[in-house]
Amino acid sequence: MVADSPSGPWTDPLGKPLLTSDLTPTQEYDMGIFEDESGDFYIVFGVWDFYIAKLNEDMISLAEKPRKIVINNPRGPYNPDGKNTESPTDDKPFLHFYNGKYYLSWGCFYAMSGNVYGPYDYKGTVVEQESYAPGYDSPTWPKGFKQGRHGSFFEWNNQWYFTYCDISQTGNRFFRDTFISYLHYKPNGEMALIRVDGIGVGEYDADQNRIESEDYFKAKGFQKKDIGNSFTLESSDKESYAIYPNIHNVEVQKEVFVHAACGVPAGVQLQIRSGKSNGRILGETIIPSTGGADQFKTFTIKLENMQNVTALCFVMNSEGSNNFSLDYFTFKNQK
Fold first, then answer.
1. Contact yes or no for 55/61 (Cβ under 8 A)
2. So what's the architecture of 205-330 in CATH?
3. Any idea which fold 32-201 has?
4. Beta carbons of 192 and 185 less than 8 angstroms apart
5. What is the pLDDT of residues 243-285, one digit of tens each?
6. What is the pLDDT of residue 320?
7. Domain with CATH 2.115.10.20 in the chain
8. Cβ neighbourhood burial of 124 (10 Å; 0-12, 13-18, 19+)
9. With left for phi above 0 and alpha for psi between -120 and 50, is residue 322 left, alpha or beta?
């Protein structure tokens, strides 16, 4: 369908399917559209075996014959041990690009390649048992909690997300909720496990134990850094900021505890502002050198003028960069 506006009206420009049922040996449904870094568009589709083809500029015709995508050593909800060659993957393939690599996913399973056409090497899943908050892994699908996580990966405001199907709350595979989770990448390009819960993204609570720095809603001048079991934000500019909106129960708080590390001998200035990087100052302090950007300590920042505050922006100012790391913050002292 084609329209001049997302709200329509929509029209059918072909009067027939773009992908016909005899086009390839697979089934031509659940397709995804992918734009590469050069501005070319591709369509990817299939069940068990996936196919890819470049689209013409009109976006409603194929520029080439679809090519089968080779996946080395694939796994899937019907193929946990790699022995099911008839159903090795799943349906609903999706492509995205990050830091020089192409990611082909089918549900929570994925493979990586340096070429959009492949071959792709299977890497793993973004969901394991430890991903789930209590009550969100059951009831599950017939093939287990990794089945049916069909979804899409995308970037917005310098943050990555995975949005996907979930039936843990409905118990009905034909009535699926849509969940969304933060997504973080390891240094080798592989994707870290997501968190599946009822909080979602862009929502926080001052009463929760701690708010992880990498789960920001918008950031500039910070880069995520893998430190093993979690991530931190490491400064990559002289001025960096990270915004956390919709923090429930925050306006009554009197102080915030920041778990941070500093490798700048003179220390860095850390400000907490209301809502945005130039919002009113709610609290500030100098974080002294801790002996390195990987030597974390907890610092207390007094908060003032908290009336009508729902969002916090952490602003770091320093003469140097890559020498300050923010791990998490909490409103309860967790030394």
1. yes
2. Sandwich (2.60)
3. Tachylectin-2; Chain A (2.115.10)
4. yes
5. 999 999 999 999 999 999 999 888 999 999 999 999 999 999 9
6. 64
7. 32-201
8. middle
9. left
